[in-house]
Amino acid sequence: MSCSDKVALENQRGVTSERKKTYVPLLGISTNEEENPRVVHLKLKQAVSKGVKIIDTNYSDKCERKVKKVLRRRWKRGDARSKYFIIAKLPMIGNTGADVSKFLHKSLKRLGLDYVDAYFIEGPVGLLGKDDNDVRPRNQEGQPQLDMDTCLRDVWRAMEKEHSKGHCKMLGLCNCNMAQLSRIYDMARVPPAIMQLDINAYNMCVEEREFMKSLQVTPFAIHPLGNPLHVPTEEYPWLVEHKTVRSVAEKHGVTPASILLKFLHQQEIVSITQTNAVNDVGQLFESLDDFNLRHEDMLKLTRLDQGGEARLRNFVGLDGCQLHPEYPFTYNYMRGCLLGTRQ
């Protein structure tokens, strides 16, 4: 068996989603709006060639046509559509019930697909774009152009209609807090099946994951290599630079990024790595088949968890949404949810 075949087998390991009882691969790659689309295309090809089967796309990243090219190449090689788990996201400029169908079908056309495996709300805050390409609208003062009338109930109802038509197999949330998850869960006919959280060794979201498990919602780890808005200190530098992570990496002869992905992988936490988080995507995924973390390694890495202090406290790449009523980072979202708070 060749090295590339071994990697493909490793990266096809997965979990069964809590609600849908659907097989989901453990490793994924995500597009990023801040990176050149040509670079994104190259890194997507590298990841898929190493057996990565989750592709996390976002209308707002303007990279869906690049994903289409990568997928077409795999179809020509004989890959089955069913082997891939494709995620699309409703942009924040589409956070109205009337706009859900339009933006989903734009994404399907750009991706060259009849359906996506999961359709997510990109974020709970609504934005008012000048047109469908104005995904990060700003006013004259340079602040986000907020839609203060966002109604997540209307948005979710429209997403449920698309689900019933077979255009998306699952529905999910991104950049939402636990109270928002609970609120949508309570009113949903088709409850959320997946929720993306900033899970990494600094922020393992233990209580949040337990709560999600009680709702049969599967967590997906975004930013598994560390919170991009983290303010490094001597005690807690950038996660990939932490002495514990580097020590374990040197022990196994791999990169710190590989250690951090393997740490989540061995806990069967689905992990989505953004294309801009690493330079050599192919090498990152290939190395995961070369080693396993031992019990003492896992304990050392587990001790890095800061119990919520290292979680995201703002949208990445979109500051200034704090005045919106659905802004998700304004309070201890786990405590608010467990006490029954609806904010």
TrEMBL record:
Domain (NADP-dependent oxidoreductase): residue spans on this chain: 44-304
Lineage: Eukaryota, Metazoa, Ecdysozoa, Arthropoda, Crustacea
Pfam families: Aldo_ket_red (PF00248)
Name of protein: NADP-dependent oxidoreductase domain-containing protein
Domain of life of the source: Eukaryota
Database matches in InterPro entries: AKR (IPR020471), NAD(P)_OxRdtase_dom_sf (IPR036812), NADP_OxRdtase_dom (IPR023210)
GO terms of molecular function: oxidoreductase activity
Site, as annotated: Lowers pKa of active site Tyr: K89
